[in-house]
Amino acid sequence: MTIPSMPILQVNRWKFTKRLSKRQKRWIIAGVLLFAGFLLLPSSFDEEPASTVIESADGYLLGAKIAADGQWRFPAFGTLPDKYAKALVAFEDRRFYYHLGIDPIAVGRALWKNVQKGKIVEGGSTISMQTVRLMRKGKSRTVFEKMIEAVLALRLEFRYSKKEILALYARHAPFGGNVVGIDAAAWRYFGRAAADLSWAEAAMLAVLPNTPSLIHPGRNREQLLNKRNALLQKLSAKGYFSADDLPLYCEEPLPDKPLPLPADAPHLLERLAQTNRGEEIITTIRYHLQQRAVEVVNRHALHQSGNKVNNVAAVILENETGRVLAYVGNVTDRANNEQGEKVDVIAAPRSTGSIIKPFLYAAMLDEGTLLPSMLLSDVPTYINGFVPQNYSKTYDGAVEAHAALARSLNIPAVLLLQDYTVERFHVLLRKMGFSTIIYEPSHYGLSLILGGAEVTLWDVTNAYAAMARTVNRFASRSGQYSVSDWQMPVINLKDTSSWLPVDYKPTSDAALSAAACWQVLNALAEVNRPEGEEEWRRFPSSRKVAWKTGTSYGNRDAWAVGTTPNYTVGVWVGNASGEGRPMLTGVTAAAPVLFDLFNLLPPTGWFRQPYDEMTQVLLCRQSGHRATSLCADADTAWILNTALESRPCPYHIQVHLDRTGKYRVTSECEDPYMMTVQSWFVLPPAQEYFYKTKRHSYRQLPSVHPDCLQSAAQRSMELLYPQNGFRIVLTKQLDGSIGRMILQAVHRRAAATIYWHLDKAYIGSTTSQHQLPLIPSPGRHVLTLVDDEGNSITGHFTVEE
Fold first, then answer.
1. What is the DSSP string of 589-625?
2. Residues above pLDDT 90, as percent of the chain
3. Closest CA to 160 of 44, 78, 50
């Protein structure tokens, strides 16, 4: 008869357990519990939200943002400070380095004290067991839980080193209120990093997690002080510091209440927290430079507040590396924050004013159509209803390109953009990194050069730094360009993808050439400095700075950006709300901030000339064009190789005079043998009209001899408004009538009389100031001007209903 197998197994299991001694059973139970511990212990601390923390490149805390759960819990920093580690072990677990997570002596002592007192007065937990309890947060403190913690502590000891266990405990221990971890506690209670704590401070933080409620002001402060001093005595007895120092440490006061964390770069903190929440971010900021930059911004903001201008922002870049050395997104010393102080203006799109003009000049220098001293037209201009004006509301007639840039004249810039085309300039700006120019070129039109687009202080400062970097690297790389020359700034040292690489990738597609950048930077170095900086050349300690200002329409935005070979500084002043204020200009508001910030930086030399891209040629001193044989006064100057075929001087012409030299003549009215020939510098009538008022050395052409006929090529009049082909829309007045237009012309002769005819009908005459009011009917009209010498010009315009 076959016996079933199951009963046999049960009998064998009963016999096996019967043979086990009590001691063996205890070991089996312990082994089962230990194995369960290895399975039950959390592999690490649960993912807890951490504060976003930013530090300077030189190791200072710049600011922190509270964690999502409302706790000040810093991300894991470096190694645990030695003072705190020694204080913690001396207070919590003096045999920490000699046990495997459970201290039998401490457990026995705790049991004895608890029996004596008749209640639980000591737990006997090791640091390892307390770390387990922190991992298993929310568990009650019962004997059963204590047994589980003891078992799990063994696994912790097998998994981590002693240093790692100390660090785990220190970074997750409660320090009172919403402060968690030694790093946050050191800053909240003592205003310094944990590594910089004194022995007294380290001792206080070592005893605090045991009873974190002791830290509250007015509550058990004497008990906390006694605990700290008792621990200091232990530390002194162990020889960590001399007995002579003990009384000094014991005299150190306890902190009254948690301190506010540093807020040296609050706007940068908010910016980085958007993409790096809960991380420790090592920035490129230089701590002491950042603090002094904040002081400069706040001081100037206080001054500007008298004009109801409330916001100032500034950024400082290191050109070679692209690193941001200082980042002041707005005013930081106002408590109410009611004037837009929380807005990070560095990243906010604002109207450019004239701040991007240098890039257009550089682009035209680059293609060889512009020379540094070439004369540009500066006369009243009307382009399809667009009427640009200089800030001064005056005209020079003609002005050198470098002077037009240094003085930030609007009309020459608009005419240059018309020649270069808005489409090409739009492509260039995008290539240079202007991320906020997002619309089609037609959206901006010619106003693009005068503030019709919005850019950020971040982008525009980097563009100036890139120009400086392009010139610097051209010299060091034997005339080669790199794709990194126009890379965006670096702010996060951990984000290596944004670093400017040391090894460069050559490119033939540079945004601007080094020679064009060099010529523009030299022109910008001649910009007149603000009050207090006018005599900078007289002082050996002063630095040469290429700088530019900008003022947006309605005085809403004041810009100033400057660069040297090593550094670039960008400044914006205005109201974050967009409200304009009288007298808010780049020169008066932003430039003083700019030069105060440059005074914080070490002086540098000047840019090396990129000779490989340039050639010396003769230039006409009066026109700035390549000299011709008619240019009696010429200078040798450096121009870009691309400009070697640029237009030669068009303003010097050959003039035939009579024997007296008072009149121009032709062979029709003068014997050729009696004529004298001279080279004469002649501007077009409109340019001449304004030019001669600024340049008294300008010689006007002699009048034509009465016996001679003046050719069409030598006409003396020019129609300023309306220009030929204009389409005009006249506005209605308050009474419903059609508004009038003002006809405007210029004549070479100051006393000339012009007779005006509209559609062949005489409408009036003018002398000296040639302006005539007119209310035309809708439709196409022909305007004819005849002067008192019989010269005439004709143009047409259309009035739309």
1. IIHHHHHHHHTTSPP---PPP-GGGEEEEEEETTT-S
2. 48
3. 44
Average pLDDT over every residue of 674-687: 88
Q: Span 8-13, mean pLDDT? A: 45
The pLDDT, as a whole number, for residue 212 is 78
Instruction: Evaluate whether 171 touches 79 at the Cβ level (below 8 Å).
Output: no
Q: Residue 746 pairs with which residues in a beta bridge?
A: 718
Rounded (10°) angle between helices 82-92 and 162-172: 90
Distance separating alpha carbons of residues 547 and 564, to the nearest angstrom: 9
Given a contact cutoff of 8 angstroms between Cβ atoms, the answer to whether 750 and 787 are in contact is no
Give the model confidence (pLDDT) of 519-547 as tens digits. 999 999 988 766 544 444 444 446 899 99
The residue behind tokens 């409200």 is: 579
Q: What is the 3-state secondary structure (H, E, C) of 160-199?
A: CCHHHHHHHHHHHCECCCCEECHHHHHHHHHCCCHHHCCH
C-beta of residue 678 within 8 angstroms of C-beta of residue 657: yes
- Cα–Cα distance, 764 to 748 (Å, whole number): 20
Q: Which two tokens stand for residue 758?
A: 């509209």
Tokens of 111: 């049991």
Q: What average pLDDT does the segment 242-257 reach?
A: 91
Amino acid at 381: T
Spacing of C-alpha 55 from chain mean position: 18
Residue of 326, 238, 295 whose CA lies nearest to 57? 326
Q: How far is the C-alpha of 229 from the C-alpha of 89, rounded, in Å?
A: 15
Taking residues 184-205, report their average pLDDT.
93
Strand partners, 681: 652
**Distance separating alpha carbons of residues 798 and 412, to the nearest angstrom:** 26
Three-state DSSP state, 60: coil
Number of residues written out for the chain: 801
Residue 293's pLDDT band (cuts 50, 70, 90): very high
Long-range contacts of 782-785 (CB under 8 A, 24+ apart): 782/758, 783/719, 783/722, 783/743, 783/756, 783/757, 783/758, 784/756, 784/757, 784/758, 784/760, 785/717, 785/719, 785/745, 785/754, 785/755, 785/756, 785/757
| Cβ(402)–Cβ(526) below 8 Å | yes
Is 713 a residue whose pLDDT tops 70?
Answer: no
645 has pLDDT over 70: yes
Closest by CA to 203, choosing from 239, 236, 168, 177, is: 236
Q: How much is the average pLDDT of 690-705? A: 86
Q: What are phi and psi of 92, to 5 degrees?
A: -95, -35
Q: Looking at beta carbons, which pairs linking 204-209 to residues 24 or more positions away fall under 8 Å?
A: 204/228, 204/254, 204/255, 205/84, 205/87, 205/175, 206/84, 206/87, 206/88, 206/90, 206/91, 206/92, 206/231, 207/91, 207/231, 208/175, 208/176, 209/173, 209/174, 209/175
The mean pLDDT value of the chain amounts to 84
Smallest Cα–Cα separation from 624: which of 774, 783, 403?
403
What are the φ and ψ backbone dihedral angles of 780, each rounded to 5 degrees? -90, 140
Structure tokens that stand for 795 in this block: 């143009």
| Token pair listed for 264 | 């040296």
The answer to whether 572 and 297 are in contact (CB under 8 A) is no
Cα–Cα distance, 377 to 312 (Å, whole number): 35
Question: What are the CA-CA distances from residue 385 to residues 314, 377, 445, 668, 720 (Å)?
Answer: 37, 19, 12, 44, 14
Per the CB < 8 A criterion, the answer to whether 84 and 202 are in contact is yes
Q: What is the pLDDT of residue 295?
A: 96
DSSP state of 281: E
b/e 479-507 (16+ beta carbons within 10 angstroms → b) = eebbebbbbebbbbbeeeeebbeeeeeee
